[in-house]
Amino acid sequence: MHIFILTGAGISAESGLDTFRNSKSDGLWCRYDPFELATPEAFRINPELVLEFTNELRRRACAARPNPAHLALSDFAKSLVEFASSCTLVTQNVDDLHERAGATNVIHMHGEISKARCTKCEAVQPCRSDLSTSTRCVHCDEVGSMRPHLVWFGEMPLRMDAITKSLSESDLLVTIGTSGTVYPAAGFISDAKNRGIKTCEINLEPAFDKSVVDKSYYGPASECVPMWCRDQLAEIRALMS
Ligand code: OAD
Fold first, then answer.
1. For a substitution probing ligand 1, which of 22, 31, 150, 205 has the most ligand atoms within 8 Å of its CB?
2. Closest of 73, 71, 90, 66 to residue 14, by C-alpha
């Protein structure tokens, strides 16, 4: 069995990181304008403002700790081996809490806040401290060419070939803590449904139309994800026996 897992900001909410949207209207994009802070044009017009915003996001992401949802997913992925099964973990999150919980081969389709990229030589490098308009690229020595390794609005998500292949080979797709607002990730669940792949949604509240959701767990990720992992392993175990 192959399981495709898509995570969003909701899985990191209980680690203290802001979501972008929520029903209380206090998500990041309710307080800030994404067009001033998360587009290539915004970076060209006001790089200081964009870097200040992303520096703060990086500081918070570095200070956060994985929560029981991240830890359960990492253990779940390891347990699958015993049942000749596997999963692909795709995240829209730019934090590295999945990795710090022990997950490997995580696909960060919207980039990673703890990496920076040189706009001159395109080299990607680790970055855990603030970037400024005078940061030097350690690869090509250019000054002022570094940007966060993030996918901004209007840019192409990363590793779409691997994502599309993995989705097409899956038996089950699970979404965790995503509002299903930003494409292409927002369309994965209906793509899966159209191909006859089973679907499951884990969220505080329903984000997708119930016509595309076969199974659901509604509540905090820190409770629902460990519960889903236990249920799913029990189901696979029963199938194998
Ligand atoms: P959103 O902020 O749009 O949605 C967060 C979802 O998590 C909502 O549906 C909440 O109900 C849910 N949620 C909040 N707290 C939760 C909890 N404790 N347990 C379970 N669920 C919870 O986040 P994404 O869908 O990830 O893109 O946003 C997608 C993209 O929009 C982001 O990657 C980012 C943003 O603009 C870029 O920056 C390109």
1. 22
2. 66
Ligand 1 pocket test: pick from 203, 217, 223 the residue with the most ligand atoms within 8 Å of its Cβ: 203
| Of 155, 158, 149, the residue nearest 109 (C-alpha) | 158
Contact between 176 and 69 under an 8 Å Cβ cutoff? The reply is yes
pTM score: 0.96
Specify the residue with its C-alpha closest to ligand 1, atom 22: 10
Closest ligand 1 atom to 14 CA: 18
Who's near 183: CB < 8 A, 6+ residues apart? Answer: none
Q: Is 127 helix (H, G, I), strand (E, B) or coil?
A: coil
98 flagged as catalytic? no
Catalytic residue, from 70, 98, 108, 110: name it: 110
Give, for all 241 residues of the chain, the pLDDT tens digit.
999 999 999 999 999 999 998 777 778 888 888 899 999 999 999 999 999 999 999 999 999 999 999 999 999 999 999 999 999 999 999 999 999 999 999 999 999 999 999 999 999 999 999 999 999 999 999 999 999 999 999 999 999 999 999 999 999 999 999 999 999 999 999 999 999 999 999 999 999 999 999 999 999 999 999 999 999 999 999 998 8
38 lines ligand 1 (CB under 6 A): yes
**How many CA atoms lie within 13 Å of 132's alpha carbon, on the beta-carbon side?**
2
For ligand 1, say whether the CB of 22 is within 6 Å of any of its atoms.
Answer: yes
